[in-house]
Every structure is written in C-alpha cells, then in structure tokens.
Design goal:
By secondary structure, the chain is α/β, with parallel strands linked by helices. The chain has two domains: 161 residues, D-Maltodextrin-Binding Protein, domain 2 (3-Layer(aba) Sandwich), CATH 3.40.190; 115 residues, D-Maltodextrin-Binding Protein, domain 2 (3-Layer(aba) Sandwich), CATH 3.40.190. It is 41% helix and 19% strand. It has twelve helices and eleven strands. The strands form two sheets. Strands 2-1-3-10-4-11 form a six-stranded mixed sheet, with helices on both faces. β6, α7 and β7 form a beta-alpha-beta unit. The longest helix is centred in the N-terminal third of the chain and has 21 residues. The radius of gyration is 24 Å and the shape is globular. The termini are far apart.
Length: 330
C-alpha cells in the first residue's frame, strides 16, 4: 500500500476542520437555536381591540410565558385593530419579523374567510400555526327586554317581516358573520347584518337596543349576565361548562353547525426558522395546558380547546374547504 506523506495528511485534516466549522456557522443546530432563542420579550399581535374576547384570552393564555419551562421570556400583547382583523393580519403577514420574536394571535374562521373574499396579504399558506388555546362558539343574543325568548321565535318574526331583523356582529367574514349567514340559509330568512368594527362594539349595539339581535362570542356574552338574553349556541353541542341551559340551533330545528366557532391560537410568519417553529410548537402547547391558565380561563367564561401544531394545520385546511363552498355565492 502506498504511504500518504505527513504533509498531505495535514492538508486533509485541515480541510475537514474547515468544512466542519463552515457547516456549524451556516447551519446552527436546533439545540444552539433553542439555547439562544428567545433573546428578548416576544410580542404577540392581536388584530382586535383591547377588552374584546381575543385580547382578554390572549393575555391569560400567554401569562406563563416567562416561566423557564415554557419560553423563559415574557410575552407582550399589542393591539392592531381594524377592518375585522384585516389591518393587523395584513401588517403581520407583510411586515413582522421572521425570527420568532413577533408572533400573532389568529382567529378562525375570520382570517381564512377574509383571505377568500378580500385581497389580503395573509392566507393559510404564508402563516405557520403554533398551537391553539380555545374554541369560542358564536351565540345569538338579544337585549334583556326583547320579546324573543328563543331562536325559533326570532325566526318566525323575521319570516313575517322580511329584511327587517337587524343583527350586529364584530365585522365582515368573521365568525359572527358566518353564523349569521348560516342562520339566514338554514331558516330561509333575510336579516340585515351590521358589522360593528369589533366584538365590544357589537355587544354595545345589543345592550343599547340599537339592533334587535346580535351574534357575539360565548365568552363575552357569558360575562354580561342578565343584561342580555342568549337564545342559541352555534355549535354541535351545548356549552355545559358555562351555558348548560342554552340550546343549540340544531336543538331548535335550525341546521346551524359549528363552522362559525372561533378558534384562537398563536401563529408565526412563513420564513421563521423551522427550529424556532418546533421549539414554539412544543413549549406554547405545554404553556396553554398550565393549571393557572385553565383556572383563569374558566373564571372568565372562556372555553378552552388546546390543539397541537399538526392538529391546527388540519383544522385550517378543513375550514378553508368549508368556507370556500359557503361563500362561493357571495
């Protein structure tokens, strides 16, 4: 066998070392990234105003972020409301950082329906789900002194008075609007839907009797107590934890399912390093399961439905397929 000279061996070793160092510099391992991330407080954009259900829940769901077993860094919520969420999500999908230090709260079906009907910067293909904390059904509400005591009574009046029933909701193509469209289709009525520019504003319209009825989040309606009447839940089953005595639409003979249920969670921009996405998907999912979070959510009348990144991915695709069909004629 031909011997290799010491000088050639030295050059070969030097080449291997250089290649190894270059690889480490160009492609840091997940362990290295996880050790370095996050390096500052993480911002989470909420595309709705302060005091609404999304803002209220996001602050509770992320309150344990500073714990070392979760993100070891606090999460700071900031609000970018406008156009039913479009302003905030357009900003996020086009301008937010992609290093994992700027995340956003999502609302489904809101952002998916808007991406189908408007020229938005966002869609399910350029956003990365991290984890889901809750599922907040839409409920049909009326002022406390309303003559309506059930969804069937409201439908009967609307049939006798076509186009005269006014219904408020947070905005266009949000969960409230989807529920309103489903009600019109299932009951064969024609209501006048009024987008109020947010859930808080929509609730105020009902409280002030500016509209005859409204769709709002179960969590927001629950906190109103006897200031309103809740006539029906837009879900496939009753919400036994908070509104056990309120029937679903289906129980009242109106075929409205759970397609308007407001799923809420955390997402990142496409282009965020996969190692950061994986780190967040693991830790945020655990954070949402913290007992202190669950206790505060229950006290606030906020139903939780914790889902992993893969489960949210599947849910996004399924909701987009349904909404594409529902909104095709509008």
């Amino acid at each position: 066998m031909k011997k290799v000279s010491p000088m050639i061996l030295k050059k070969i070793k030097s080449s291997f070392v250089t290649a190894a160092v270059t690889t480490m510099l160009l492609a840091p391992s997940a362990a290295v990234l996880a050790a370095e991330y996050p390096t500052a407080p993480i911002q989470v954009a909420v595309a709705y105003g302060p005091g609404g259900a999304t803002d209220f829940q996001a602050r509770i769901a992320t309150m344990m972020a500073g714990n070392e077993k979760y993100l070891n860094m606090p999460i700071v919520i900031f609000n970018k409301p406008g156009a039913g969420g479009q302003k905030g999500w357009n900003w996020y999908a086009s301008s937010a950082s992609q290093d994992g230090h700027q995340l956003a709260a999502y609302n489904v079906p809101h952002f998916i329906a808007q991406s189908l009907k408007f020229d938005t910067s966002y869609n399910i293909d350029n956003l990365e789900p991290i984890a889901n904390w809750g599922a907040d059904p839409a409920v049909l509400i009326v002022p406390a002194d309303s003559p309506f005591n059930s969804a069937t009574e409201l439908v009967a009046w609307s049939k006798a008075n076509p186009g005269k029933l006014t219904v408020s909701g947070a905005g266009l193509y949000v969960g409230h609007h989807i529920a309103s469209l489903q009600l019109d289709k299932a009951a064969d009525i024609s209501t006048k839907y009024i987008p109020a520019g947010g859930g808080v504003a929509a609730m105020k319209m009902v409280l002030g009797s500016q509209v005859m009825a409204g769709f709002n989040n179960l969590s927001d309606a629950f906190r109103q107590g006897d200031r309103i009447k809740i006539l029906a839940v837009a879900d496939n089953q009753r919400e036994e934890s908070f509104l056990p005595d309120v029937p679903t639409f289906k129980e009242q003979g109106i075929d409205v399912d759970d397609s308007s249920v407001n799923f809420r969670g955390i997402m990142a921009r496409k282009g965020t390093p996969p190692e950061v996405i994986s780190f967040l998907a693991e830790r945020v999912h655990l954070m949402f399961q913290d007992a202190k979070v669950a206790k505060k959510m229950k006290a606030g009348g906020s139903p939780m439905r914790i889902m992993s990144r893969d489960e949210v991915k599947t849910m996004w695709v399924e909701r987009q397929a349904y909404l594409t069909d529902l909104l095709s004629d509008l």
